[in-house]
Amino acid sequence: MRLNQIQMRDPFVLPDADEGCYYLYGSTDPDIWRAPGVGFDVYRSSDLRQWKGPFPAFRPEPGFWAERNFWAPEVHAYKGRYYMFATFKADGVCRGTQILVADGPLGPFAPHSDGPVTPADRECLDGTLHVDSDGAPWMIFCHEWVQIVTGTVCAVRLSPELDRAIGEPVVLFSAQNAEWAQPVTSPSNGTGYVTDGPYAYRCETGELLLLWSSFKQGRYAQAVARSESGTILGPWTHEPEPLYESDGGHGMLFRSFDGRLRLALHTPNRTPDERPVFIELEETEGRLQVRE
């Protein structure tokens, strides 16, 4: 299969140099908004063009707590195992990110944390792993606008085993801190400012960037924030314009085996037309731009 044949939101690429292949994860249920959750699929490729799959990476066992909104799986290699950070939802339970684990990138992944590691009283999504310069793991996630009107990006320390949060979350910034971000209106949730899809990236200069997404002029957009301290706690400043604003976002960065830096995101931002797209970037003195 080629990328334009794969319906997927929130794409995440895990390069595996030992195997010489790439693994592609994402929100792969045909209707992630209303239908009961099925699980997550993974695709595999040696050249980023032709993909084999789908392979079932996660299927919930009977009695699994979540019912729907199986969103945004990311898979990180950490201390010899593979950890999936994924968002789930159930009636009467706040949406949150749970951590799953497997011995290999194909899975099958099984619950590792006891339910979500995001706060139980907050509607949250899109948890991602960040390991700081001291080797301490953090989860960066979004507190949803549907609960607080102006969405925020937060961070919380994780246990060394990645099975629970340690301490209280810290707010890194809100959507309105970016001057370009504009509100959206939903028939069920009203009007508010969206924060989606955080992903931390350490530049060759040592600067720490954070990718995240919101909306500009009604279209999904991929943004970049910069830590003034070089740590996850910021303070964070925002690039004046999105990196990509053609109705695509929820991106992450990876290097292909030839060393090229690539942005993975989905576009357009409508179901069932969304597809994963890879865009080559240039990194110059801690700044990212689309390669011409």
Automatic annotation (TrEMBL):
The lineage of its organism: Bacteria, Bacillati, Bacillota, Bacilli, Bacillales. Belongs to the glycosyl hydrolase 43 family. InterPro entries: GH43_arabinanases, Glyco_hydro_43, Glyco_hydro_beta-prop_sf. Pathway: Glycan metabolism; L-arabinan degradation. One of its GO terms (biological process) is carbohydrate metabolic process. This is Glycoside hydrolase. Pfam families: Glyco_hydro_43. Gene3D superfamilies: Glycosyl hydrolase domain, family 43. Keywords: Glycosidase, Hydrolase. SUPFAM superfamilies: Arabinanase/levansucrase/invertase (SSF75005). One of its GO terms (molecular function) is hydrolase activity, hydrolyzing O-glycosyl compounds.
